[in-house]
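Handout for the seminar on molecular recognition.
Each group receives one record of this type.
Step one: identify the two inputs.
Step two: read the structure output and locate the region that could contact 4'-deoxy-4'-aminopyridoxal-5'-phosphate.
Step three: write two sentences on what you found, then compare them with the reference statements printed after the record.
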Amino acid sequence: MSTGKWTDYINPAVQNMPPSGIRRFFDLAAEMEGVISLGVGEPDFATPWHIRESCIYSLHRGRTSYTSNQGLPELREEIARYLAGQGAVYDPRRELLVTVGVSEALDLALRTVIQPGDEVIIPTPCYVSYIPCTTLAGGVPVTVATRLEDNFRLTADRLEAAITPRTKALLLCYPNNPTGAVMDRQSLLAIAEVVAKHDLLVISDEIYDRLTYTGRHTCFAALPGMRDRTILLNGFSKAYAMTGWRLGYAAAHPDFIAAMTKIHQYTMLCAPITAQVAALEALRHGQSAMEQMVAQYNRRRRLVLQGFKEIGLPCFEPGGAFYAFPYIGHTGLSAAEFAENLLREEKVAVIPGDVFGPGGEQCIRCSYASSVDDLTEAVKRMGRFIKNRTAGRAR
Ligand code: PMP
């Protein structure tokens, strides 16, 4: 029975979901030649060779089967060892679940804890999945715009002001995508106090933990009293340049992990064994390769910040991840206009800050996970673009 209108068959929750604002820019950029893209949130390195090799070797040996639903026991042990080093101790048998990227872990965490109408506080600007995944899980996203003057950190008073009797969870992401903001231990302790006072859960996406350039990363679950009310998410995509392998994990109280594993066993069964073998190698022997990549990102971070300064683009200093989030309000353009015109006129792709939710309207996201040559050229082109704008406005 076809009415010719197949959209009528589609769940309105999905129909009403806006497509990712990032994709739109990729599509625009893909149609043009000579574009330098600072748009993608992805390392420009290939996965370190020894990690790829371990996977090839395991395939040679015929390791092509399913694993246990929760993931290879030896991988979970290695993850537990890593997290213990961050001050968060987990039992690898009952408190860890290996997932298909942090993406799956996030979806599982939200679907596991949310009941229809539950509010989830999401500090913004935020990673593009948080709001749609919360909605799809039946939750109500409550955004709290972080501010440039707070260095894009969530403050305890702004968090407290957003809490209602329906608030179930807080979704944290530090180091942050898209701002590059990090939270120091003191500021996180203030957040933890509010969380405990209002009996909230925290879903803490710490996928960029290793990409911290200023100070040391604080694992939210390692703060006093937070372990059992936190679902900690992390993965291999960013630190080990393993985006395409699709591997992440969740660490939490056994009640949460058991519940999340129920969904995971029916929807995914298990994460791919190839990726799990590679992740094991990454944790066992990948430290030095990872540190070299992080040192490169840090070098590029400084280069981009210096470059922005020279071209008159004000930018707060990002302490983590691989994004800069400069302010473009003074150009008189909206973030979308800035990004579109910059792409058309100078062939540099950046992402308008408003696609990451409230608080990003006057900023653009520039990923510096690109080569030094590309970054240098991109900054030069952006400088020319801004000069033309300001000259035009002065006339
Ligand atoms: N969380 C954040 C904050 C991210 O930036 C990304 C990827 N851009 C993800 C989760 C998804 O990561 P994964 O590749 O592990 O699914």
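Reference statements: The radius of gyration is 21 Å. Residues 287-310 form the longest helix (24 residues).
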